[in-house]
Amino acid sequence: MNSNSQSENDAYLKELGALFIPLDEMENLDRMVDAIGDADIVLLGESSHGTADFYRYRAELSKRLITSKGFNIIGVEGDWPAAYRLNRYVKGLPDADSSATDALGDFTRWPTWMWANTDIRDFAEWLKEHNAANRDGHSERSKVGFYGIDMYSLWESMEAIIGYLEKTKSPQLEQARRTYACFDPYNKDHQSYGIAAGLLSESCENEVVELLKQMQKQRMVHPGSEEELNAEVNMLVTSSSEAYYRTMVRGGPDSWNVRDRHMVESLKRIMSYYGSSAKAIVWEHNTHIGDARATDMLEDGMVNVGQLLREDAQHQVFAVGFGTYKGEVLAGRAWGDPVEKMVVPPGQPGSWEDYMHQAGGGRNGMVMLSEASSLLHKVIGHRAIGVVYDPQLERYGNYVPSSMADRYDAFVHIDQSTALQPLPIHKPVATEALFSS
């Protein structure tokens, strides 16, 4: 390393050290809440889907935002139907499950541990208690909701739509049945549908578009109800996931962009339902919530949730990245493989993780990147671990070139992390996906 490079690295580390705020026992998290200010959307990331510490810190931040700033929406990188079952539980809606563990029972799609784990269970119990204690919480809209804004649940969402239309005796029922029948030959196999639609031009796109038009033309019979929101987003999921699987097999950025645009649109539908009081917290991987324009995703023609929401002048957005220097993580060796507890090696020299470790002297902490100088706009490697992971191959593809002060407004560093503790979920389903985050 030449003297100029060493001088640059020393200056970078010195600034991080000056910005570093210790987070021992989460004692300084209120400084993050203060920094969030008047934002109406707060994005809370994670550098891996299998790290307990990220869930715990996000839960604690979310609790403080709910109680002190009136946030009322939790949107997560999970399937809408499975998360809606948990939403019914935390809101105490009719026919809800008797415990959070039971309410997490529909998270059967691999990787089940992302949401069916003890940290989400405990956070859901807190949400339920908070909602029950809200004396003004007579309506569904006055309670904090928990929603999945992802779009992998094509068949489950179609089934939910048909169930809703049957219950409401809707004139769209027959069209919905015809749409669902179009997908029958693929036996709920996303990959088979993707190949047929993307490569053989045998898609159900026309049926989905027609159903979407009909359902938009004639509003639901319970305007403004949570039941209508459920049907509306399930229809959006059906449309987006059909497009996702149709584009996935072709490669390129299209399927990624379909997915992240869907998550933004889902969040906006939920916020519209909550009206002028809507304030949302989003839990997703750093690759979704950190602004894509500050990474090499920009060159690849990819957009993400963080970028799209920052570009929307109607909202004030605050994005918080999360990462670790070393520790443990839950992941699979390949898509659909049994989950393993793996060792996360120390961050590579010169990476963001390495700098944070040095700046904090091995402590947990956070930095407010909105206060950083031009030094922290330098592009360096920032670790990203998906649900598929091999620690021995980490150096070959797990570091995303990033301008950290452009990617996030703040960052939470866990120096030594621990793995999630999954809940037992029966009949796990492995589905193909193009991206592991």
UniProtKB/TrEMBL annotation:
Source species of the chain: Paenibacillus illinoisensis
Organism taxonomic ancestry: Bacteria, Bacillati, Bacillota, Bacilli, Bacillales
Highest taxon of the lineage: Bacteria
Protein known as: Erythromycin esterase family protein
Entry-linked InterPro entries: Emycin_Estase, Hydrolase/PRTase-associated, UCP036794_erythomycin
